[in-house]
Amino acid sequence: MAKKQFKAESKRLLDMMINSIYTHKEIFLRELISNASDAMDKLYFKSLTENIGLSRGDFAIDLAIDKEARTLTITDNGIGMTKDELENNLGVIAQSGSFKFKNDNTDTQNDDISVIGQFGVGFYSAFMVASEVTVESKAYGSEEAYKWYSTGVDGYTITDCDKDSYGTKITLKIKDNTEEEDYDDFITEYKIKGIVRKYSDYIRYPIRMMVGHSHLKEGTEDQYETHYELETLNSMVPLWKKNKSEITEEEYNKFYKEKFFDYEDPIAHIHTKTEGTATYNALMYIPSKAPFDYYSKDYEKGLQLYSNGVLIMDKCADLLPDCFSFVKGLVDSADLSLNISREMLQHDRQLKIIAKSLERSIKNELNKMLKNDREKYEKFFTAFGLQLKFGVYNGFGAGKELLKDLLLFYSSFEKKYVTLAEYVARMKEDQKYIYFASGETIDKIDKLPQTELVKDKGYEILYLVDSIDEFALQMMVDYAEKQFKSVAAGDLDLETDEEKAELKQKSEESKDMFAFMKEALGGKVKDVRISKILKTHAVCLTSDGILSLEMEKVLSHMPSEHNAKAEKVLEINAQNPIFDTLKKLYETDKDKLKIYAELLYDQALLIEGMAIEDPVEFSNKLCKLMTE
Question: What is the pTM of this model?
Fold first, then answer.
């Protein structure tokens, strides 16, 4: 029979697909196995509607390797193809028999029927690894069988052939090795087994192959012989499609450790099944600790994506928000629109619906853990709390409603980590703000001079030790209509009317002295003033404006063209003896007052954990004063 030519557009598509569409050449086997599964689904469907005496157990996919001939064969006992179907399905690229079958049976409600292939192009991925492709097929109920043969874009032939049983047999002549590609992988037993397990482990029919096993030859000590056994390579039944009641905790954990290469049990698993607007099965896990590269740019988030048990994408990032990027797991759905290669998802409505549903499921699981197992939740938060805080900060606070109730901060009252809801629940009636203090460690924060007044008034303080904390709270603005307030803000509005009047009077009396000290500091501070927050300490730094001292410290360690600085205010405690000393010096020795101002400023920087500009000069000034 004369060779037929592909249509011009089909020829271009085939050439493009063979050379560029698929990222990994091993995908071809997934596609051919999926097509075989489709063919058996169609015949099984026919058996249900026409009572032809076939059960699901009658079907199987067989693989065979012939290293000498360099062939790989995929055989199924599905519905097979007629001559016209070979012509239409394989002669016209993107003509999908599976897609037509699915559309023709949309009115049939049967959960046991599903068709994986919908676009009719996966078959041609075989040409990525094969120089010749032969398809022998006999339609169920037909007496004739036909052979389709092609070497690629040059065209194809269809001829009669002898075939005893219905179904389809595809024989690939594997290409010779090149400098860039080792095609021997595709006629290597362990490689084929690995590809099947990776992509087609959950195909519902057994995928079988004769597998060799070496053993010591009887009567010898160093001679081995190989015997072959027909083995089923795939597990067939996905764990996530079983009922929860059928699965033990040990089985969930074993699946996680084997599937996601972790040696520790996860903190929790989330097993959901949803039908309706979006139909999918999902099995997700929250690891017990962060991977070594989690907080690096090399970490890839995403869930494995399956379509009817066939792996489509190993890490589908669009299914997880960044704040929950620590979640491992998979989603299996037949509803997603897949593009021509099955390797890239269109960002369609179904995907967004599933992603939103998964987001709610993850949040609900974390809320449940927080409520019912605080110790476990705190272990989780130690590993991934930073990511939740980044989630609040990123997007200018867009994620705060999702995450605000999941955050934990150390409490000055409880001496442990608390939620914002717990803080607000025990606020005093007259308390206006949620107070917080920032620093490197809890112990250092607890000793900050700025915390004195708030503690003295009996108010709880949240201690922030992560660099992102203050940025996140700034994005949140408030919680339960209570605004956040840094104890280093300077004006906490905690004084009585009498105290306010006294401070006002002393400030007025000292304004010229403070103006001199500000000038002596040469623009290092925005202002020098009497402190409203100090009780016993002599001096501290506060800030005016949006940028706090702690935020300045964080930003100073980041690569940036802009050297962001907080508007620092040097605050002096009018109740401390140093205040009277400063007043005397202003009257008698302004040169020494200038040195005092510089020393007090450097002391305040040190208290804040900030570097002083000239440690040597600081030391010299101290020594000079000590020897006078």
Answer: 0.77
